[in-house]
Amino acid sequence: MDNIRRALGNEISEKERKKIIRSFFRNFCMSAIEVLRIPHMSLGKNKGLVKIEGWEHMEQALERGKGVILFATHIDNVDLGGCSMAMRGAPISVVARKMGKSAEEFITSVREHTGVILIPPKNSKHYIKELLAENKIVTIVADQHLSKRRAIACKFFGQWAATTPAPSRFAFETDAAIVPAVINRQGKTGYHQIRVSPAFDLETPYNDMDMNIRHNTERLNRIIEQWVREAPDQWWWVHRRWKVQDNPEGWDIPQDNSSADQSD
What we know:
Blueprint: H1 2-8, H2 14-37, H3 43-49, E1 50-53, H4 55-62, E2 68-72, H5 78-87, E3 92-95, H6 101-114, E4 117-119, H7 125-133, E5 137-141, E6 152-156, E7 159-163, H8 166-174, E8 177-185, E9 192-196, H9 209-230, H10 243-246
Helix pairs in contact: 8-9
């Protein structure tokens, strides 16, 4: 409940917050069951349950030949979304995060079964650049806390959060396109829709590259905020997203104590 208050504040009532929590846990249980079913799901069944809207934006980005950074978040069943794209032939990869051994082994097997290319979490920079050079899709799920070594402090729902600059940085360094995409649970149980957006246009308002990376990382956070507001019961609220806000010591916080691009 506290995370919902921090993010949405007075935008919703206490009654609505409780409704979101109840719905979130139902959705979480459904997602766990769906992941268990993925290895047994035919392509035809997958196409019936998971619709993809806007895939032409991904095709247009791939036509550039520089690779695509698929910008995603933990809304709904993000693993089902990635596996669904891979099952349909998309050259998709994902940066894997560490988890418990049994869970990690199972999720790895599910992803590999559907054709997802796994990128190890450590020392992944060169491999990501190789995949982009081969015109592959590299998925970066960008809404969880990271260490100071891997993140910068950006505003998320108005509060400081450790945020990966990787999508913006890789796009600047490789000329790969950033394509935001989100999966949402639909009204009927088991049905989902993936919405693929047009390629994200990088902005360069500063002469300093690090400032441009921060600027665009902030803009990408605004996209996640919009997705969360559209389906608040489908985002991963149990994650401790605002550790930097609670303990900013040692983080490089912009001097004006605000991010320059909140209105974007």
